[in-house]
Amino acid sequence: MASLDSSQHLSFDKWADFAGILLFLWGILFVSTIDNFLRPYILSKRSNLPVVISVIGTIGGLYFFGIAGLLLGPLILAYVLIIIEFYQMGKLNELFGGNK
Question: What's the chain's Rg over C-alpha atoms?
Answer without folding.
Answer: 21
